[in-house]
Amino acid sequence: MTTPSDDRVLTAYALAPTKTIAVAGVTYAYRELGPKEEIPVVFFVHLAATLDNWDPRLIDAVARERHVITFDQRGVGASTGAVPATIEEAADDAHAFIRALGYSRVDVFSFSMGGMIAQDLVVRHPGLVRKLVLTGTGPRGGKDIDKVARTTYLDMARALIARADPKEFLFFNRDAVGKKAGKEFVARLRERTTDRDKAASLSAFRRQLKAIARYGRSAPSDLSAFDGPVLIANGDNDRMVPSVLSHDLHRRMPGSELIIYPNSGHGGIFQHWRGFVPVAVAFLTRTES
Questions:
Q1: Which of 11-15, 124-128, 144-148, 241-245 has the lowest mean pLDDT?
Q2: Domain with 117 in it
Q3: 257 in helix, strand or coil?
Q4: How many percent of the chain have pLDDT more than 70?
Q5: CB-based contacts of 207: which residues, under 8 Å, 6+ apart?
Q6: Domain at 276, CATH number
Q7: Which residue in 5, 58, 173, 208 has a CA-CA distance of 20 to 30 Å to 80?
């Protein structure tokens, strides 16, 4: 692991400049921060999310110890091209992006749909990923993953009526604790005030939902082939990607670590960030035997 040598190393996500790289006719938007190292941590974001949807409390903490790279999926945010029709295609895009940056080995932190892409990445491109963090996600063919669209549209409608950010409904329980956590999370996402990313289009959102539905209806992948360290985390009441699927992933990936946070939903790691962030940093900085 490389350690920052002086105060000039950028570790504040709110200040990380947006960069671009062209790969096979597609321009990917990305941000990077933290000390330079041979193996970075690449963050795979959720459905309809852009560079601005990562919790700065998580990114900043990891960037103090590791080199962090976040990126927009093809056709989302500031990245060009058409949104992939399948999760497999998105995994191939991620592979092309990572290789274009010059990396042959990476660690991956993923959330929700990003975790689905990350799973396909390790299956389709073995040897690329060293360590894997899977949060708020589930395995290919997992129970009720194909119903994500129904839950998503329902909560978006509820948020519209309440004049709230949809993530407050999609990611958090609607009790007093969850409501407070949701508002705090959304406020953190707004801390970046300049060079903000372009929001995902409605067509991109719908295309990603269809890709998730196909993923949910397809045959399971053999995840046991991945022999690197795996950390799995979720809330105990995930309505988008049912919490039982985190247990399913844990069973499918021998030796994986599982954390389920109480009284929390899809965004359990963001509600319980004070407890989760040190665990994630320790996992990503741990030297394996």
A1: 144-148
A2: 19-285
A3: strand
A4: 97
A5: 75, 82, 83, 84, 85
A6: 3.40.50.1820
A7: 58
Tokens found for residue 17: 């400049």
State the Cα torsion 149-153-154-157 to the nearest 10°. Answer: 170
On whether residue 4 sits in a domain, the answer given is: no
Q: Quick check: 59 and 126 in contact, CB under 8 A?
A: no
- Round to whole Å and give the CA distance between 167 and 46: 11
**Does residue 11 fall inside a structural domain?**
no
Token pair of 18, please? 């947006």
Residue (of 86, 36, 73) closest to 198 by Cα position: 73
Across 74-139, where does the E strand assignment appear? 106-111, 129-135
Number of folded domains in the chain? 1
Q: Tokens at residue 160, please? A: 């519209």
State how far the alpha carbon of 37 is from the alpha carbons of 2, 4, 70, 83, 96, in Å: 6, 10, 15, 30, 19
| Domain annotation covers residue 7 | no
Residue-averaged pLDDT of the chain:
95
- Give the tens place of pLDDT for each residue, 109-125: 999 999 999 999 999 99
Of 29, 46, 51, the closest CA to residue 114 belongs to 46
Rounded CA-CA distance 168/155 in Å is: 9
Beta strand residue intervals within 114-166, DSSP E: 129-135
